[in-house]
């Protein structure tokens, strides 16, 4: 019984970690030179933190099928706005 529980737990952990690894990640301009561009996205929020914007960019990039993104524009103030280039 313990063995079955351990196997089930490991299987669940591997699925969760695969999902976390599948998210698009941020790259810099040097890293992006070796990647294929596939368009751009933008996000805007009111009263959020920069990490919230990165998370939203990553989620939106992943939804579009990108493996990475590079922030090309970021503005702050009462609202946050960011634009990013998507890469395969």
From TrEMBL:
Residues 31-48 have a biased composition (Polar residues). Residues 1-22 form the signal peptide. Coiled coil: none annotated. It comes from Buttiauxella noackiae ATCC 51607. InterPro entries: BhsA/McbA_stress_biofilm_assoc, Dodecin-like, Stress_YhcN-like, YdgH-like_sf, YdgH/BhsA/McbA-like_dom. It holds the Pfam family YdgH_BhsA-like. Residues 53-63 have a biased composition (Basic and acidic residues). Residues 35-88 form the YdgH/BhsA/McbA-like domain. Residues 31-70 are annotated as: Disordered. Keywords: Signal. This is YdgH/BhsA/McbA-like domain-containing protein.
